[in-house]
Amino acid sequence: MQLLENRYFMLFVVLALVLFSGMTAAQDYGEAPMLTEMVEAGELPQVDERLPVEPLVVEGYDGIGEYGGTIRTTTTAPEGIGDDYLLMPFYAGLVQPHPETHELYPHLARDIEVSEDATTFTFHLREGLRWSDGEPYTADDIMFWYEDMLLNEDLTPVVGHQFRRDGETVEVTKVDDYTVEFKFAAPHPFFLNYLVHGNFHVRPKHYLTQFHIDYVSEEELLEAAREEGYELWYDYFWAKADVVFGMPVALDLPTVGPYMIVGKTAERRQFERNPYFWKVDTEGNQLPYIDRIDTQIVSDLEVIQGMIMSGAVDFVGYGTDLRNYPMYRSYEDEGGYRTLLWESGMGSEVILMVNQTHEDLALRELFQDKRVRQAISQAIDRDEINEVVYFGQGVPRQYTVLDTSQYYEPEFETAFIEYDPERANELLDEAGLDEYDSEGFRLRPDGERFMFTVEYYDYETPKAPVVELIIQHLQEVGIDARSRSISGELMGERAPANMLDANVWHGDKATDILFPTNAQFFIPMPPGWERTIWPLWGTWFQTDGAEGEEPPEHIKELYGWWDDMLGAPDEERRIELGKKIVQAQAENLWAIGTVGEAPKPLIVNEDLRNFPEEGFWVWDTIFTGSHYPSTYWLDR
Predict the structure, then answer these.
(1) CA 248 to chain centre
(2) Cβ atoms 169, 177 nearer than 8 A
(3) CA-only gyration radius of the chain, Å
């Protein structure tokens, strides 16, 4: 195998071949009793016919488990991410991060070759791998995604930068039934990082062609689309192809994940094991161990807290709140669960972002003045936030990469985090905000009150109490800051449309998995629902200047560093450029951090085994996804 650098040697050889044992030799495989019944009834092939030639061997933290049982989870998102998708991530990436080192190793792919210049990536798929309906998973599925989805302008109007280098879209070639080659016009050393969260490869050609205009007559396809309420064929296609974490949303869409969705109502989602799942334990037992997942869809987070205390759920991750930690501990015996504290994996638990491309030009000018952003940062009392919200368990911290990152420097973490209202007032005065109205609030240079609203979606990290404290701190230095709690759906509409003054989110993308490829809080990226730093500039970069608004030169330079870093074949140069980007955040505070390194409580049924006591609860590492979730089992 030709590899780019020593880092890639560790990436593929050590992790893939040592930690994960290689692949099992020919042997008698075990299977769940519910599948044995189906085999005996003639409804399924034998287990050795359902597994690939070389299944992936994994071992749970406590060893070999037992089959059976149903996991109860919950969510407030009828169509979105819930604890079902997090406890048993249906994600089946071509690569996956190691839970402790965060290095990447081949996952769904049996092996990966990287050319010396990082322009060519060859993926060797697992021979005999099958979709959940029993159809073969081959290179043709990836070619369907490439030829019929990525290159179709209706389905993909703009090809993402992960599939482009030097302005050219990647060339994907089928080498044989189980081998595909991705060739870029220039070095793309971080391409594998993109694949940790990429789900392009989970598009079953044999199923999706019936919804694609190149395979069905336009008249027939539009008739079918309109029967289900869609006017455009590609909206209909996406409804049938939609996935969350790589897991189908539609009931009939085949998967390569450990579970299939088999029921879906306004109140519940239900899943059953995938009989063709491609992992086994060290004794050859086909995974997963648990038979079913039952997810109750509830109205709000308060309902989830009651379910925790009464023992009505077996796992809660998204719906927990550190503020409730004492309550969780006090109800453990009654609820039959244990409360674990994982590391959050965030660069900052809550980050404040002001809109530098605001439609109000006077407000825009102030938000673009780094003295204003620095003043806001130094007006925030992070020690108070830490004590009140995080029980003193966090660390006052500017938003930056984690201290385990190769791009980290200590001064990045401490930039402008001192609580210094006097200095904040001086900076605001210097920025032209030295006049006040009759109520003691500062006036903008145009005579209007300096007022803005922080809109937020109160989910995952405790945003509401942090925002309210920030509002108090800013008002103390004469800024009329206000807050408004909104739904995720509304934030998804308003933030990309450049309609927010400011918002907050949690500062993830701070590990070496995602910072290089998705530095969305460090540089202008395509507008997203979770950030409002620079929507118009992000659009300008996304469309090569065709839409949005041209940014100033220092922002172009920032983006240029990132673009150069993505293509630099030399790791030392990549680190140098990455540190320049992180240093720019420390100086300019595109995103204003609060407190970091706070623990994240997880509620885990006392009978759930192979669930690790420690881990990172962060999107970068796919939450529980890198902790072998198909090995979890119920000791009942």
Answers:
(1) 17
(2) no
(3) 25
> For the chain, what's the residue count?
636
Instruction: Kindly list the domain boundaries of the chain, sorted by start residue.
Output: 6-31+43-65+77-254, 351-596
* CA-to-CA dists, residue 114 to 12, 121, 384, angstroms: 10, 5, 49
Cα distance between the two ends of the chain? 46
Residue 515 near residue 509 (C-beta atoms within 8 A): yes
The DSSP letter of residue 135 is P
Which whole-number Å values give the CA distances from 431 to 92, 289, 373, 444, in the listed order? Answer: 50, 61, 10, 9
Q: Considering Cα of 489, then 490, then 491, then 495, what sign does the dihedral take?
A: positive
* Superfamily designation of domain 6-31+43-65+77-254: Dipeptide-binding Protein; Domain 1 (3.90.76.10)
pTM of the full structure? 0.87
3-state secondary structure 149-206: HHCCCCCCCCCCHHHEECCEECEEEEEECCEEEEECCCCCCCHHHHHCCCCCCCCCHH
Kindly provide the residue ranges of all beta strands, DSSP E only, lying in 283-418, ordered along the sequence.
Answer: 292-297, 315-316, 337-343, 348-354, 395-396
Return the number of other C-beta atoms located less than 10 Å from residue 556's C-beta: 14
The answer to whether 526 and 634 have CB atoms below 8 angstroms apart is no
Gap between the Cα atoms of 474 and 229, Å rounded? 48
One-character DSSP codes across 196-265 = TT--TT---HHHHGGG-TTTS-HHHHHHHHHHTT-SSHHHHHHHHH-EETTEESSTT---SSSEEEEEE-
Measure the CA–CA gap between 231 and 223, rounded to whole angstroms.
9
pLDDT tens string 211-252: 999 999 999 999 999 999 999 999 999 999 988 777 777 889
Q: Residue 587: which H helix or E strand, with range?
A: helix 571-588
The CATH-assigned architecture of domain 351-596 is: Roll (3.10)
pLDDT tens digits for range 52-101: 999 999 999 999 999 999 999 999 888 777 888 777 666 678 999 988 77
CA pair distance 365, 627, nearest whole angstrom: 46
How far apart, in whole angstroms, are the C-alpha atoms of residue 190 and residue 513?
9
Of 461, 456, 197, 492, the C-alpha closest to 318 is: 461
364 contact partners, CB below 8 Å, separation of at least 6? 355, 356, 357, 358
Using CA atoms, how far apart are residues 127 and 23, in angstroms rounded to an integer?
Answer: 12
Pairing relation of β-strands 292-297 and 70-75? Answer: parallel
Q: What is the phi-psi region of residue 314: left when phi exceeds 0, alpha when psi lies from -120 to 50, beta otherwise?
A: alpha
pLDDT > 90? residue 533: yes
Three-class SS of residue 119?
Answer: coil
